[in-house]
Amino acid sequence: xxxxxLNQIRRTNLQRLFNPKSIAVIGAxxxxxxxxxxxxxxxxxxxxKLMAVNPKASEILGFxxxxxxxxxxxxxxxxxxxxxxxxxxxxxxEAAQRGVGGIFIISGxxxxxxxxxxxxxxxxxxxxxxxxxxxxxxNTSGFINPYLDCVASFVPGVDQLRRGNVAVIAQSGGVNxxxxxxxxxxxxxxxxxxxxxNAVDVSAADVLPMxxxxxxxxxxxxxxxxxxxxxxxxxxxxxxxxxxxxVALVAGKNDIGEFAVSHTGNLxxxxxxxxxxxxxxxxxxxxxxxxxxxxxxxLAQGRLPxxxxxxxxxxxxxxGPGLLIMDGLKSANVAVPELSPPAQQEIARHLPPMTFIKxxxxxxxxxxxxxxxxxxxxxxxxxxxxxxxxxxxxxxxDPVTALAAAKACGKPVVxxxxxxxxxxxxTQAALRExxxxxxxxxxxxxxxxxxxxADAQGRWNQTQRSAAVQIQTRPRIHRTPDExxxxxxxxxxxxxxxxxxxxxxxxxxxxxxxQLSKPLVVKIAAADVPHKTEVGGVHLHxxxxxxxxxxxxxxxxxxxxxxxxxxxxxxxxxxxELIVGGxxxxxxxxxxxxxIGGVMAEAMADSSVRLAPVxxxxxxxxxxxxxGRKLLDGFRHLPICNRDAITAVVKAxxxxxxxxxxxxxxxxxPLRVNADGALALDxxxxxxxxxxxxxxVNLKGHENE
Length: 705
Fold this sequence. Notes:
Number of strands: 29
Helix content: 25-40%
Strand content: 15-25%
Shape: flat
Number of helices: 23
Largest sheet: 7 strands, mixed
Structural class: alpha/beta
Distance between the termini: 49 Å
Strand order of the largest sheet: 3-4-2-1-5-6-7
CATH superfamily of the largest domain: Succinyl-CoA synthetase domains
CATH topology of the largest domain: Rossmann fold
Radius of gyration: 31 Å
CATH class of the largest domain: Alpha Beta
């Protein structure tokens, strides 16, 4: 079967799996304690054709039963496999041969247990890849499609989840239902909720394009654990966020990098790579299931236009909560500008003197003019969204009436409140009816402002990316470069470094001392010493012959397989020390990192990452994420740093690694930056293990000749 034809079959079968018109439960049972019985009962309200498969019965729980998949009267869209793992391979093969669209495997016992389970899982993957059959799971609680009354899940209560416009895709079946129940508790509903389980075949990258086109879905909530095919997910998220907001929660904050050669790898945990890639693709990343549900519900009701710095205003009926909200917004780097003079003049007409009206607007207490104040804020030209907070006081404030005029301005208005349930619940229901988002607590109102801004910024960033980078074919590097050779490689991509001489003997070093301008740096140049400072292999501020000879003596005492090699280099002018590097990740491809560098790089762990290739705005965002970003702007005695030069270096490192697939890691640490530009003071290049092995084999072959 041609690949194009197979891909089309896979796309069609994915739609059949999640939007079935006919379903068969394989392993159906009348025994209520068995999964096959629960699966049938969960689907009892399914309006399409529902059949059972069991060789020992002709009817189960009122549904027609057939002895095997091949005996089904039609090729069903979905087959639910409620049978032990060892029997699933044959059932999947029969389903593919019968023309079934997709299967959902309830049982575990596959890749998560290793051994024979992993072998069975691989067989399932092979069947799907070869035939076009789609598989949800295994080891998952399934999915719910409320618009089709399709409850392909056996967890009690999920059939009562209301219809709505938030789609949930979760790696874990349990998390899928947790998020779905949270959305329900917020008074909203789901358009689809799917637990991917082991994701042998159907992954988030498969489901996202389908949801981007789904008319019932206006926002997507995404939960991720491991990401085996990050680049594919990145492209799927980027395409989806162009049309619908995607909010993501990534499990596994407390991980460590698996790379040990460079600081770069150690500074990039897999969690940071995933979070950064999602943000780069335009997703909004949150920190808990509650935030995920709240943010998705909020964005499902409307999003801001794409903008680099969306401006948020706050109107508060109580000063204390207002201060907390403003503090939270500023901590999240959300723009909260002073209102324009005309807006302030209009607001002043409706409030008593001495109230604060610049932003936030503190009304003192909700009064008769509260709605007009909110409307005036919404009409301000320099404001994109309005947050409103007031404790519940039904006797003095009807939020629906007060916010109606502001909502009519066409800008998002979000109301935050707290009070007794008897007062708050009717308000929530009325606001839902009026399509005005409502959240409970100052912190949730901060979240609302933050996610509205992050979603708008994410889409604006996408508009700033230039055309695809042109990748050239370069000669491969077959031996790990020493520092001097690494700097020559960088120079080919426009990355400058100080004047230097690579010396193979003491006499060559002494000649270099005479040639170069003082002061000098003397470094060990052996390729098997990646971190020179830690072994005493870097000597700075060398001005006279005595200092120089002492440095050579010290380096000569460092154990190495390549003795005698030193790099003599002119010292660079003062500046800020950064670290810039890249690694080749099996899932995400080339990942770039920039951070505060020097000998304290890992101790400070102040870095930001993005996927290559990067745009100018990507690098700007990377630098903006650093805790030490003030160091770049002339902090105290430090020089103002040339950010354009930093951007050029980060982009060049990405280009270099994309054009040299044999490079596993690349690190410039430190990159010395000042107003005049950037200089690579040290460079480390590590090749993929396969390149080193091939080089060693070739070298031995030449030695034997």
